Amino acid sequence: MAATTLHASLSTAAVGLSHNGGIGTQCQRRSATSALPAVKLTTYEGLGKASRLTADVVPRVSTRKNLKCGAVSSPDSSSKTLDIRAHCQPLVGNKAPDFEAKAVFDQEFIEVKLSDYQAQGKYVVLFFYPLDFTFVCPTEITAFSDRYAEFAALNTEVLGVSVDSVFSHLAWIQTERKSGGLGDLSYPLVSDITKDIARQYNVLIEEEGVALRGLFIIDTEGVIQHATINNLAIGRSVDETLRTLQAVQYVQENPDEVCPAGWKPGEKSMKPDPKGSKEYFAAI
C-alpha cells in the first residue's frame, strides 16, 4: 500500500437531493474554492501503476457538462482535473441491474443470468472482487465457499464476480489453496471481462480496470436490500453478511417490525412507532 499526500486547494461540488413521494434527485454544481488540509489518498500497488495523482496535481471539479451519475471517475493528468460524480440514484431499494454472463462452476463453463434466481424465488449475495491470483481475494472467496451451506439454508445463492476471464477463473480454481489457489468452490465465479456488470453496480475503478469490493444482497423480487463497498485492501466478513441477510429476511417476513443495531435471530426486534420503541428500550 502506498499513500500520496496532496497539498491543494480543492473546488467543491454540491449535490442537491429532492424527495417527493419517492426517490427523486437533482444534481447541481457550484464553484467555490477554499483552502483545505492535506488529503491522503491510499492506493493499491498490487494492481501495477499505483495512481496518476501526484503531489503537484491540484484536484478540482470538472467543468465538463456531461457528468454521469453513479460513475467512478479518474484523474486526467493532462488537465490535472479530478471529476467528482454524484451517485444520484442509490442502488439500495431499487431493482438490481440484470445481467447474463459466463461463469465457472464445478470446473465447467456455464451461463449465469441474475433474473433466473428471482424466477426460482431465491435471494442472491452478489460480491465483486478485484482480480484472480491476488491476496485478499482468495481469503474472501474461500470463506464464502466454506460457509455456503449456511446461505443455502437461507434460500440464498452466492455469486462472485471479477473482470477476469473464465479461463483465469478455472486456472485459479484448479490451483490448490496451499499454493494460493481456490480449490473447488460451492458457487459460481462470474466473468465480467467487459466490465459492464461492475459499471452497472457502480463499483468499477475505471483507471485501473478492476472492481472495488462491493457486496449486494438481492431479494426474491430482484430488489437490492443491502450494499457495502470496501476499498481494495479490506476483506469482508461472512458472519456480518449472514447476519444482515437474516435481518433482511426477518423484516420482510415481519413487515411491521424493524431490526435494531447488531440484531441477530432470536433477539428482540422493534415496532417502528413511539410506543413500540419505548417498549423495546424498556426491555433491554
Automatic annotation (TrEMBL):
GO terms for molecular function: thioredoxin peroxidase activity. Its EC number is 1.11.1.24. Residues 90-250 form the Thioredoxin domain. It is an enzyme of class 1 (oxidoreductase). PROSITE patterns: THIOREDOXIN_2. It catalyses: a hydroperoxide + [thioredoxin]-dithiol = an alcohol + [thioredoxin]-disulfide + H2O. Signal peptide: none annotated. Pfam families: 1-cysPrx_C (PF10417), AhpC-TSA (PF00578). Belongs to the peroxiredoxin family. AhpC/Prx1 subfamily. Thiol-specific peroxidase that catalyzes the reduction of hydrogen peroxide and organic hydroperoxides to water and alcohols, respectively. Plays a role in cell protection against oxidative stress by detoxifying peroxides. May be an antioxidant enzyme particularly in the developing shoot and photosynthesizing leaf. This is thioredoxin-dependent peroxiredoxin.
